[in-house]
Each structure stands twice: as C-alpha cells, then as structure tokens.
Specification:
The complex is a heterodimer of chains A (317) and B (444). Chain A has 317 residues and is of the alpha/beta class. Chain A has a domain of 204 residues: TIM Barrel. The longest helix of chain A is centred in the last third of the chain and has 19 residues. Chain B has 3 domains: 53 residues, 3-methyladenine DNA Glycosylase II, Chain A, domain 3; 246 residues, TIM Barrel (Alpha-Beta Barrel), CATH 3.20.20; 121 residues, 3-Layer(aba) Sandwich (Rossmann fold), CATH 3.40.50. Bound molecules: cobalamin (B12) and iron/sulfur cluster (SF4).
Chain lengths: 317, 444
C-alpha cells in the first residue's frame, strides 16, 4: 500500500520578489523570490523550494528598543548604517528591517532625515531591505514617500499598511515600485478585506506580504499561529485574496514578563529561546519571513530551516 | 466515513441493559458517533455489527495512557489536523531521558527535577511528564538498577528504552505494574516485546523508518494482543519528521489508514537540533517527546508553546467574574477593575502581590477577552462595570467610591464615572507599573 496524502489543494501561494540586483536596476547583491508553495510548509520536497527568510530588525532611535538588544549589540545601535552592516556580515541575516523609530518622537518633522537614514542603511548592507515607516497618520504620507524615493529601484518591502491607513503607503509603493506589508489583527477575514482594499487602489497581488500580527509566545501566540494556518489553508484552497506570503514579527517578545524579568545571567538565553520557538512555530504555520531582534536567534533558526528543507538547493537568484 | 447516531443505533442490540455504562442504547450510540466510546463496551454486539462499527466509531487515534496515579497522562484521541478546526485535546508528554550508565546521583537529580519542578503560567502549573531510561550499558542488571533508582524516588510515568528483551524483562520486574511505556518493538524483536507488554499490560512503541513498516508492525502487534501502541517514525531530519507525522495524522483522522491510528513518539534528544525538534514535535503532532534534561530557557519556551498550542481556540482560558482579594484588604483598600481573561488576571495579580498593598480586584465578564481586545470589540462597557459593582456588592466591601481602571480602558473613563457614580482613576497601561502608581496616586 502506498501511503500518500493528497489534500486536494488547488491554489498556490503567490510569488513576491524582494530586493533588486544590478540586473533589475537596483544595487542589492541578491534578491529573493518567495511564495510559490502548493502545499503545507515544508511538505514540498522538490529541490529549490525555499526556506523562510530571516530578517534582522534594527531602528534609528534605539530609545524605543529593548535594553536586552541594546546591551548585546553595544554601540552599533547608535549608527544604523553600521548596525545594518553587522546584521549582514556578522549576524548573517537574509534581510534587514529598519524601523524609523525616530519618527515616533513628539512633533517629528525632519522628513529629510528619513531619506538620509534609508540611504545610510542601503549603503551599510547590500541585502534586500524592509523599511517600517511612521506610526502617525499625520506624517505618513511624507514619510512613506521619502522612504519610497530613497529606495527607488531597490524593490523594498514597505511597512505597514492597516485597514485604517493604507493609502499613503500604497501610493509610495506604487510610485517607486516597492511591495507592502498588510497587517490586520489576527483574523483571516480582516486580512482578506485589507488585501481587497489594496487591490482596489491598484496594488497587485505580487506586491503584498500578509502580516496577520504575531502575539508573542504566551501572550496571544496561539491566535496568531492559527490565523497563519487559516490564511495558508485558504490560499491553498484557491482564495486569491489570501494567497500572499506571510511575515511574522513577534515584536513584543522581548518585553514579555518571562523575558524582561529573567535573571541577568540567562536573560539573553531566554530572549533567544522565546524568539526561536516563536519563529519555528510560525514558519511551520506558514510564515516565509521571520523577523528577529536578538542576533543570537539567527544561527539557530538558520540551522533549523536547513534541517526542515533537506532538499534545498538555495533560494537566492 | 463517520456514521450518524441513528444509523449506529439501528445496529445496536436495543436491550437498554446499561452494561456499556450508558443508560440506553441510544445514548451509547450518540457517544459512538462522537468518537467518545468504544464498541467493545457493549457485550451483546454481534461480530458483523462490531466490524461495521469498530472501524468507523473508535476515535481515529487511539487514546493511550502512560503511568498510574497522579502524574499519569494520556495521549492520542485527536481528531483534527488544524487546531482551529476544533482543538487539540491531549498535550504531548515531555519526558527527560537519562542513560543507565549515569551515576545514581545524577539519575536521582533528574528524577527529582521532573517530580518537583514546575512553572506557573496563567494559573496552570506546567510540568515535565516523566523519565525515560535508556539501556546504554547493554547490561540487563544495570538497566534494572537504574529503573529501581527512579522508582524509589517518584511515581512518574517511565519510558524504558532498550532493544534487548532480557533487559526489558529485568526492568519490568521493578515497574511492570505501573504502565511504563516500552520502547521499542521493531520487526526483529516484536514477538518478545509484545509478549512482555501483554504480560504486564504496558503500552508499547513500535519503530520503523517507513510508514508501511509502521502499519505492518501495528497490525502484527494488535494481532499479538497489544492494543496500546505508539509509533516512532525514526526521522532522519526535521523535514522527515514533519512529512511523516503530517501524513500519518491526515491518514489517521480521515480513517483512510486505521493501522496508523496511534499517537506519535519523537526522541528529540537524538535529532541534530533538539530544541527545534521539540518545538516541531509540539506543533506537528508528536504525543511523547523525549529530550535531554532541558536548560531553564528552553524549558520555559517549550512548555509555554505547548500550553499555547493546546489551548482551546474557541474559548480563551477564563476566570469567573467576581471580586477577588489580594492580601487582606480593608474598607479603605483600592479597587482595581479588569477583565476575566486569565492571562490578564494573573499578570495583574502577580504585580499586585509584589506591591504588598492589600486590594480588591473587580473582574468583569468580557467573555475572556483581554483589555485592549475587549475595548476594541465593545465588550467592555460602562454598563458592564456598573452591573458588576452591584452584582458583587463592592459598595458593601469598601467605604470609598474610587475605581482604578486599566490604562487601555481610558476611553471609557468618563462614561464609567457617569454610569456608576464612582470616581474613576485611570491606571497605567502596563501592569508592571502598578506598584509605583499605587504608591504615588493611591496613597495621596
Ligand atoms: C490575542 C489577541 C486577540 C485574540 C483574543 C485574545 C483574548 N482572549 O482577548 C483574538 C484573535 C480573538 C483577538 C480578536 C480581536 N482583536 Co485582538 N489582539 C490580541 C493581542 C495579540 C494580544 C492580547 C493579549 O492577550 N494581551 C495580553 C493581556 C494580558 O493584555 P491586557 O489584557 O491588555 O492586560 C495588560 C494591561 O492592560 C494591564 N492591565 C490589565 N488589567 C489592568 C487593570 C488595571 C487597573 C491596570 C492599571 C492595568 C491593567 O496589564 C496587562 C499587562 O500589562 C493584541 C495585541 C497586543 N499586543 O495587545 C491584539 C489587539 C488587542 N486586538 C485588536 C483588535 C482590533 C481585535 C479585533 C477587534 C479585531 C478582529 N480580529 O476581529 C478582535 C475583537 C475580538 C472579538 N470581536 O472577538 C487590536 C486592538 C486595537 C486597538 N488599539 O484598539 C490589537 C491591539 C492588535 C492590533 N495591533 O491591532 N485579539
Ligand atoms: S450494553 Fe449494549 S445493549 Fe446494553 S445498553 Fe449498552 S448498547 Fe444497549
């Protein structure tokens, strides 16, 4: 008897390209094509099926960052160009995700600095980038346009569109040829609605990455895990409005009680294990970009993804 | 395909004799339809009816119990591939492995750790579940002695890992009546292992690298009279595990391959990446996970993941609404309002206890939603707060009329004040700051 499962899927995860190399008019040394899956994560055994990308998160105003990371990374956190470079050459991430935390200061208005920061990070690393713009609707439009412009030709992934505020970011993405992260609070229907809104204003499917919002381990992760599974399931069943690849960023991980109050001797270990465990579980649920903030989480995830795709023959192109 | 209760009822003897433990044949039929009973419980079923019913009504994955007494646990009896389709019922047991070549001291230390250590989250004590003893010495005598050492210290579920029937027999002398799990029967030693498992009434792991091989083994073992089986898939990589485990789960729950309807065993300690294997085992259908004694960092993350994945997605873990006390609050003690989501309650309670200021916690019924979620969903309203104050007779407990509400509920502060007539004080957003807040704002 042959034991083979046939789930009867008819859909496929849509493909999104992140980063542009010289050949595509950018300056990145690599670009990634993610998506394309036709079944549950890691069940595909065909050579060349991709493993999740690991994105290292940095910011331009470390006041808003976890003290655990500030201690671990030291002075680097004060210079996002060098920090991005370390993420690439020392921590060995696949992507760098820059949070423009400087824009969170009260009455922020130095829009020109946003462009400079993005340029600094672009020259600090030649990896594809994710840029997180402002958190404040009043300055969204200017900030996103600036980011889009500074990264013109680089096929950035811009974050984050939400149901109430997606127009500015979509406009910037379309004007400068970037992709967007579409975030909704842990609900498959809300994720779908937002994708439809984006489609209606002209953002094409191969330019969207879904962020179903990741509650951190022990603080809502179970909901996020199932939301990811449901989205992947709907996509495989053929729902084109949910067929985009998923991104997971458990941004609260380093502030949960178990991590924040850990004894100093093992605080890094705890932080890393919480990020790592979340990352593995999210990958298994369908996330294709896993974001982390502790450098030590990267090699652990890298090895695990290697063992989860034993027939991998490289994902870059 | 699953049968409906009425179809099943037609096949039952209709004696209503209660011998199955149910009051009537019909209620028994309803249980069978839900996969919650075993046809074997009715002594009057004829063979023809049994074979029709057996295959379709028994749970698609057999329930297997390990150990006896307080720390015993059961695994299996799962019905879905995705937790959102229903829920996952039986969390995997995490079992620490020690070699019989370790010193008695070391064996005792690990045993004591599994017996005593726990980690409290959301009101639940999360524990490791048992001890696996590996016959690394290849000596029956040393193996038996190690088992004896563990047995003397604690009544924990055991896993006996050996390929040697003689060593197994020697170990079972010490623990055979306590339902240890035997690991593992293979195509080579199956006869002897089945005989021992049957003699002692123990659950048995079968091990093979292919799904075919596993199905063959479970067929042979059940024919030899051992029904309580668990399957070791011998994965050579994390991917091999996820592929085989998912395949088996899907075939079992769709009843396409009844020979695979048994829980899955995973020895994470022999995998390349044990920590990743544990997380994968938890999410992807392992029921018994063997690991080396875990560091505190890995242990906390793994136990929390297990708790998350095995929570019922339809109902958040909830508290009964009511007025709770922290310490021995008097008439002038502060009253803090929050929601009945357990995670919120226990987080806030933890911080309140460390402030050492006795107080009341007024828990209102938001159907288990957290503060922010309840506010966003409109489940937290001024009328709910007003009714709760009345229902739980808060006005008789304290002489003041001041209510501290969570920072995230601040949009409701004016309305709560109007509806209740109480003065509302908006607390911090993060419960970690509650101590400081109370000392500064309440004391004044
Ligand atoms: C898990 C989750 C869910 C789960 C529900 C979990 C639950 N049982 O509540 C699900 C998936 C069902 C869900 C649903 C929704 N959610 Co939701 N969810 C979350 C998530 C990720 C975590 C919530 C959580 O568990 N927090 C942990 C607990 C302990 O926090 P807490 O109760 O607030 O308690 C803290 C403080 O408030 C304080 N505190 C508590 N009590 C008290 C008392 C006093 C006196 C004081 C001083 C302090 C204090 O202490 C605690 C620790 O600091 C949050 C994001 C986030 N980071 O908060 C989004 C979030 C709350 N959800 C959101 C939304 C919009 C929704 C939905 C409306 C949308 C939807 N998906 O349909 C629905 C509504 C629910 C419904 N109709 O059923 C938004 C809310 C936006 C806003 N700012 O208003 C959030 C912030 C996500 C986001 N970024 O968009 N959600
Ligand atoms: S034991 Fe059989 S005959 Fe008796 S009540 Fe139960 S199902 Fe009916």
């Amino acid at each position: 008897m042959v034991y083979d499962v046939n789930f009867g899927w008819s859909g496929m995860i849509s493909e999104v390209i992140l980063g542009a190399t010289k050949a595509d008019g950018g300056t990145r040394r690599i670009s990634y094509r993610i998506g394309g899956g036709k079944t549950l994560p890691f069940l595909e055994r065909k050579p060349g099926s991709s493993v999740p990308l690991i994105a290292f998160e940095i910011c331009d105003n470390p006041q808003y960052w976890s003290p655990i990371v500030r201690n671990f990374c030291g002075d680097l956190v004060n210079d996002c160009g060098e920090w991005a470079q370390a993420a690439d050459s020392v921590y060995k991430a696949d992507m760098v995700r820059l949070y423009l935390t400087s824009t969170r200061q009260r009455d922020f208005s130095d829009i020109a600095s946003v462009g400079k920061t993005v340029e600094t990070v672009l020259s600090g690393t030649s990896l594809p980038l994710i840029i997180e713009g402002s958190n404040e609707p009043k300055i969204d439009s200017e900030v996103f346009l600036k980011c889009g412009e500074a990264g013109q030709g680089e096929r950035l992934l811009l974050g984050t569109a939400e149901a109430g505020r997606y127009r500015s970011i979509a406009a910037a993405a379309m004007a400068y040829n970037h992709s967007v992260i579409a975030q909704s609070p842990i609900d498959v229907n809300l994720a779908k609605q937002l994708n439809i809104l984006l489609k209606e204003i002209g953002v094409s499917r191969d330019r969207i990455i879904i962020d179903p919002y990741t509650g951190s381990l022990g603080y809502g992760f179970e909901y996020s895990y199932s939301a990811m599974e449901r989205i992947r399931f709907s996509a495989l069943k053929g729902d084109a409005d949910l067929s985009m690849p998923l991104i997971c960023s458990a941004t609260d991980t380093l502030t949960v009680k178990e991590v924040r109050e850990a004894s100093p001797a093992i605080q890094d270990d705890i932080a890393v294990q919480w990020e790592f465990t979340t990352g593995i579980a999210a990958a298994v649920a369908g996330s294709e970009i896993i974001c982390v903030r502790h450098p030590r989480t990267i090699p652990l995830l890298r090895k695990a993804f290697g063992s989860l795709n034993t027939e991998d023959s490289g994902k870059g192109e | 395909m699953a049968l409906k209760a009425l179809d099943i009822y037609k096949l039952l003897p209709k004696r209503n004799c209660k011998e199955c433990g149910d009051p009537t044949c019909l209620t028994f039929a309803m249980k069978l339809a839900g996969g919650k009973a075993d046809v074997e419980l009715c002594p009057y079923l004829d063979e023809a009816a049994k074979s029709v019913l057996g295959a379709t009504t028994r749970p698609p994955i057999r329930l297997v119990k390990l150990g006896i007494g307080e720390r015993s646990f059961s695994v299996g009896e799962e019905f879905v591939l995705y937790r959102h389709e229903k829920t996952f019922y039986h969390p995997p047991g995490i079992v620490f492995k020690i070699a019989d070549t370790e010193s008695p001291d070391r064996i005792s230390t690990v045993t004591l750790r599994v017996r005593d250590e726990f980690f409290t989250r959301v009101g639940a004590d999360l524990r490791f579940n048992g001890i696996a003893i590996e016959n690394a010495s290849s000596s029956a005598e040393i193996f038996a002695r190690a088992v004896e050492t563990v047995e003397k210290i604690a009544d924990l579920p055991l896993v006996l890992i050996t390929a040697d029937p003689a060593a197994l027999a020697a170990a079972l002398v010490h623990c055979g009546t306590y339902r240890p799990l035997i690991h593992a029967a293979t195509s080579e030693n199956r006869k002897e292992f089945c005989a021992l498992a049957k003699q002692h009434g123990c659950p048995l792991v079968v091990r093979a690298k292919t799904i075919d091989g596993l199905a063959q083994l479970t067929r042979d073992c059940t024919a030899d009279g051992v029904q309580d089986l668990i399957m070791d898939l011998l994965p050579e990589s994390l991917q091999a595990f996820i592929v085989r485990s998912t395949t088996i789960r899907q075939l079992a729950i769709t009843r396409l391959a009844p020979d695979l309807g048994y829980p899955v065993f995973l020895d994470a300690s022999i995998m390349d990446l044990p920590d990743a294997a544990i997380a994968l085992g938890i999410t992807k259908y392992a029921s018994i996970i063997i690991s080396s004694p875990l560091s505190p960092a890995v242990a906390e993350a793994a136990l929390t993941l297990r708790q998350n994945i095995y929570t019922d997605p339809q109902k958040p873990i909830q508290m009964n609404p009511g007025l709770y006390r922290v310490g021995n609050p008097g008439k002038d003690a502060p009253v803090l309002m929050t929601v009945n989501f357990s995670l919120t309650f226990f987080t806030l309670q933890g911080y309140l206890e460390s402030t050492r200021l006795p107080c009341f916690m007024l828990i209102v019924d938001t159907e288990g939603l957290s503060v922010l979620t309840a506010v966003a969903a409109g489940k937290l309203s001024e009328m709910l707060v007003k009714d709760s104050i009345k229902k739980f007779a808060v006005e008789e407990e304290v002489s003041h009329r001041k209510l501290i509400i969570p920072g995230y509920a601040s949009p409701l502060s004016g309305r709560i004040e109007e509806a209740t007539g109480w003065k509302v004080m908006v607390g911090p957003r993060d419960a970690a700051e509650i101590g400081e807040y109370l000392h500064e704002e309440w004391k004044r």
